[in-house]
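Technical appendix A lists one of the benchmark inputs used to test multi-chain prediction within the project. The record comprises two sequence entries:
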Amino acid sequence: NAGVTQTPKFRVLKTGQSMTLLCAQDMNHEYMYWYRQDPGMGLRLIHYSVGEGTTAKGEVPDGYNVSRLKKQNFLLGLESAAPSQTSVYFCASRPQGQGAWSGLAKNIQYFGAGTRLSVL
Amino acid sequence: ILNVEQSPQSLHVQEGDSTNFTCSFPSSNFYALHWYRWETAKSPEALFVMTLNGDEKKKGRISATLNTKEGYSYLYIKGSQPEDSATYLCAPYSSASKIIFGSGTRLSIRP
């Protein structure tokens, strides 16, 4: 059982280049999230998705785009990379839960191993 | 957006000592709170899920409490061991879908 898989694990870009980070989960989860982790700042939410075909902005969405064409995949795109986007990126997923909000609230997130991105 | 604060930012504790740290959040629009443990070079892993005011959870030497009326949760570690060294993140839910993480408390255990 692979869980949440992120590709690539490492990447170095030049300023202005574009790239796409892939997150794939095999747990049939409804919700998926992209975070970035910077020193002293914990995890900041970039974008998230509550289901196939839906996306929403998080805390720090500028400079990123996302797509959720298939339920199992959540793609994070950088159209024109900037040095400020140097970070470690984490993807997470969780199930929607059943019925009442308490079921929703109890469902924890499962994280990928992270993608370390450097923009020169 | 939910304002989440964790304190202290970092903590150095002697092996065998007990310690605790805090997660503060606005008490309105509270759904639930998760604690995650994040070891260096690994992914965050869930420790506790807390939903009701007065909740107390325990897992081995680690326990947590929740006060939704005043907007805080405490994480306690009894008899710290080197393997407890990690960053501990809290994540209150402000809605069913959006989860905002605190910046974490980085715990280092001195042998």
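Residues 25 and 73 of chain A are 7 Å apart (CA to CA). Chain A touches chain B at residues 31, 33, 35, 40-45, 48, 50, 56, 58-59, 90, 101-102, 104-106, 108-109, 111-114 (CB under 8 Å). Comparable benchmark entries are summarised in Table A2.
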